[in-house]
Amino acid sequence: MRIHQGLAGAVLLALALAGCSSAASTTEPAADMASVVESGADGGMEYALDESGEGGGGVERVAATPQHVIVEGYMTVVVDEPTETVSQVTDLVAKAGGYVESRSERAPTEDSKGRATLVLRLPADGVEGTLDAIAALGELADRNTTATDVTMQVTDLDARITALETSIDRLLEMLAAAQRTEDLITIERTLQERQSDLESFKAQRLALGNRVALATIELELTTDPPPPTVGPGGFWPGVVSGWNSLVDTLRGASVVVGVLLPWLVFFGVIAGVVIPLVRRARRRRPPKAARPVAPFPYGGQPVPQPAPAAPQPPAEPEPDASPEAKQAQDGV
Question: Most Cβ neighbours (<10 Å): which of 150, 250, 310, 317?
Answer without folding.
Answer: 150
